[in-house]
Amino acid sequence: MAQRDSVDPIASLRHRGYLFFLLGSLLSNIGNQMRFVAVGWEVWNRTQSKLSLGYVGLVLALPVLLFALPAGAAADRYSRRALVMIGQFGLAICGLGLVWASLTQAPLPLVYVLLFGTGTFRAIGWPASAAIVTGMVPETVFPNAAMWRSVAFHFAATAGPLAGGFLLALWNPAAVYALDAASSFIMVGCLLFIHPKPHKRSTESKSLHAFMEGIRYLRRQPILISTMTLDMIAVLFGGAVAMLPVYASDVLHVGAVGFGWMRAMPSIGAMCMGLVLATRPPMRRGGYALLAAVVTFGVATIVFGVSRSFSLSLAALFTLGAADNISVVIRATVLQLLTPDSMRGRVTAVSVIFIGTSNEIGEFESGVAAEYLGLVPSVVFGGVMTLVTVVVTAFIWPELVQMGALEQLRPPEATDAEVEALV
Known about the structure:
By secondary structure, the protein is mainly α. The chain has helices at residues 2-5, 16-47, 50-77, 80-103, 108-131, 142-170, 173-191, 208-219, 222-237, 244-251, 255-278, 286-306, 310-337, 344-373, 375-396, 398-402, 416-420. The relative contact order is 0.16.
């Protein structure tokens, strides 16, 4: 029993290729998070419009909706490493464009065009970036790899906003955009030294049928579709992060540095939770853990919305991030273990549309709601809707409530052919 419950917290980090990929992703994500902070702060200070902040999320989400499915199909047919490199190179070019736009005070629509480009290259590289991990580590340690990737992302989402906030206070947004571009170039360099094992290539034609195969597969996997739906709707309505510039400047009066701390706090909570998960045995009741995490997320959102204390707001954001990380780890593990390798790009693309766009569309929803309902009512409404989503999801998909240990979702003896037979 003791041997079965023993945990190697760095199992995935013992694989050199994955470690290299993780470090490169960490630096790139730090730059990305710095960019998010600078864009939100610059747009708010230039317009003083909550709706303009919401448009930032919209222009980042649209290209994902348009291009994620074809990018997912490409990730199953072509080199995933090459697609990630294309995405990172494009992000670097868009970052340099934002430097120019900031220094010249270019019209705001041009800034939105550059952000649309950013979203486009994110959509190109995102499915391949998620699917490539299975070529670097054995399936038996993938939950550990997913956990460390989540920790690295949230560390980046901690360091990036803090660094961005200090740079905004001491310098200007253009400096932040330049560092973001440099971080993407570094990731391109790291990818040159990564050689994942070849994945099973899709043999389907480049047709709409091939693009839609990921959706058809998900329809027959209630656990997959329920975890994605729960996370998507919770993030869609719980997007309080979009309004942080307004809270920092007009409600809590903490300035750019305080805004950086607020933007970083959810990721500090997520990173701490990730470290806790790394040292504990695998979850034995994954369904209940996921539902409880989303309930906590909703309650923390409500507390943040009504808070007028900077310390209480930070605590609420910390709790929100910690709860969200449990959801992220469970969803990423379920996605990879229940998906055959030849379909991971397409299924991941659907996940990107579900989850990736929900963050940005949630920001747009928050901007519109704050404009017409008021700042605090819009955030509280989002938290309440998150709680309602938990109840509805548990009722529609009882399989989620019954989900047990994650490692039992796909027995080791099940082959890709056997899983594909379920489609």
